[in-house]
Amino acid sequence: MKKVFVMFLCALCGVMLVSCGRAAESDTENVTKPAAEISETTAETSEAATTSVTDVTTAEVTTAEITTTTPQTTTRPITTTKHTQHVFAEWKTVKEPDCVNKGSKERECLMCGYKETQELPLKEHTFGEWAVTKAASCTESGVKTRKCSVCGKTEEAGIDAVGHKFGDWQTTKAATYETTGERVRKCGVCGYSQSEVIPVKVLTDADKLAMAREVAQEIADSIEGDTDLEKVSQAAAIVAWYSSQCNYTMEGKDYATAYGVFIKGEYSCAGSTRALGLVLECMGYKWQHANENQYTHQWCIVTMDGQEGYADGQVGWAGYGKHPVAE
Ligand SMILES: [Zn+2]
Ligand SMILES: [Zn+2]
Ligand SMILES: [Zn+2]
Fold first, then answer.
1. Residue 290 forms beta bridges with which residues?
2. Nearest ligand for residue 146 CA
């Protein structure tokens, strides 16, 4: 078999290259053969060619440190060159990865055609929008699903329960100052009804005073008379009647208040004085609390018909001047 060898210089590195310009297998074989064997083969060729090949094989090919490790293509000139490191071209993607199959890329040595291959990792799934597959209710969670448009894999996730949508509280039993009440509200979606205890009403001092003032105003409105003394005497008598209906006490929170006398049913002379004072206020009088906060008898000091006098809500007396029995 006749072989023609061609010699040329690499434009990149200046290394001498040799090619026979024939089929890849036989060329590779020749190149990797020991120099002696090649010389034998080339002896068949013409004189001119023999000279060239002998020079190349002894000078260059036998000293190559890297030889091709992948088969040469037939369209490429077969080259073997002296290079200690491959000179790679850019990576080229051979197979695009998707979410199921890994891909690959390769790069080729510009000097010897050696190919290096690397794996390309899996891609993320290409999920579409979430679709509700089971709607959440007030109290139970739901399910949503999405699907990969590439491989069809589905993914599920929970949907939080939405919670009740309650309407306003409706009082079903009002609380009093003694007993608790109850109120109810209903979910407009599922009808669930929730009830709650309304705590016992707490009376503030202001509440108590307002309640006592209502009674005092009624008393004031009922009083008739020509002189201040007549009117104040009636008021004192009425408050004394209320006091007589109460338990006399010096314990608790209310005995010294108008609320104690008019509402709660407990009193002391301090409470009677404040109850009468409240009625006097409702009648349009100004008054002073005699012996306020002292451990002694107490009454109202009030000006009637242009004279200072006294009005006592415990015993029901009123008059001009000083209190007849107490100081
Ligand atoms: Zn190479
Ligand atoms: Zn997928
Ligand atoms: Zn509900």
1. 299
2. 2
The Cα-based distances of 48 to 43, 45, 98, 101 in angstroms read: 11, 8, 57, 56
Ion ligand 2 — residues with CB < 5 Å: 99, 125, 148, 150-151, 153
User: Distance from the CA of 137 to the center of ligand 3, in angstroms?
Assistant: 7
Ligand that lies nearest to the alpha carbon of residue 162, given by its number in the listed order: 3
Question: Which listed ligand is nearest to 137 at the C-alpha?
Answer: 3
**What's the rounded mean pLDDT across residues 286-293?**
96
The pLDDT of residue 253: 87
Distance from the alpha carbon of residue 138 to the mean position of ligand 3, in angstroms: 5
Residue 325 has pLDDT above 80, yes or no: yes
258 CA → ligand 1 middle, Å: 112
The pLDDT tens digits for 70-121 are: 444 444 544 556 889 999 999 999 999 999 999 999 999 999 999 999 999 9
SS3 198: strand
Q: Where are the alpha helices (DSSP H) in the chain?
A: 24-32, 35-42, 47-59, 205-222, 228-245, 258-259, 269-283
Q: Pick from 129, 127, 121, 119: which is nearest to 150 by CA?
A: 127
Nearest ligand to the CA of 125 is 2
Q: How confident is the model over 29-37, as a mean pLDDT?
A: 40
The mean predicted confidence, pLDDT, of the chain is: 83
